[in-house]
Amino acid sequence: MKGSAIDEDVKISYKPAEELIILEKVAYDLTKLAETCVLLINAGRPVILNWAEGVAFHHMPLPFNTKELLRERMKGRIYWASVFYASMPAYRSTLKVGAIEIPVVETPNPLLRKAARWMRDKLEVGP
């Protein structure tokens, strides 16, 4: 089947982030990370932890809802308001606190994997 004229005229570009700026970071042990997630869940916020490079983490990106943040993204910068994380050497699909199960997703995302390595390095050497 032949493509339409629009298909032939469409240019697709990919612009990955060039810089991730984290405004606040908090390192926990794994139990405290899970308990913090439960607090967020009980407050009505959905929480899914990411896992990569031996680190479980939850990040809160700043949305691109202002002209300034959209301009920053166009320059290749992404901002996270905060990230909290803990060492979790072996992947587990859930963390359980009482009756609450927190899902953990092993991320293939290159930016999240690089951020996880950065967090892991911070755990090893301190703040």
Mean pLDDT, as a whole number? Answer: 92
Fraction in beta strands: 25-35%
Structure classification: alpha/beta
The major pleated sheet works out as: 7 strands, mixed
Choose one word for the global shape: elongated
Summarize the structure.
The chain has about 130 residues and is of the alpha/beta class.
Defining traits:
4 helices, elongated, alpha/beta, 127 residues
Report on this model:
This protein is α/β, with parallel strands linked by helices and 127 residues long. It has one domain (16-125). It is built from four helices and seven strands. The chain has helices at 5-9, 30-42, 67-74, 110-125, and strands at 19-22, 25-28, 49-52, 55-61, 77-87, 94-97, 100-106. Strands 1, 2, 3, 4, 5, 6 and 7 form a seven-stranded mixed β-sheet that branches. A hairpin with a 2-residue loop joins strand 3 and strand 4. The mean pLDDT is 92.
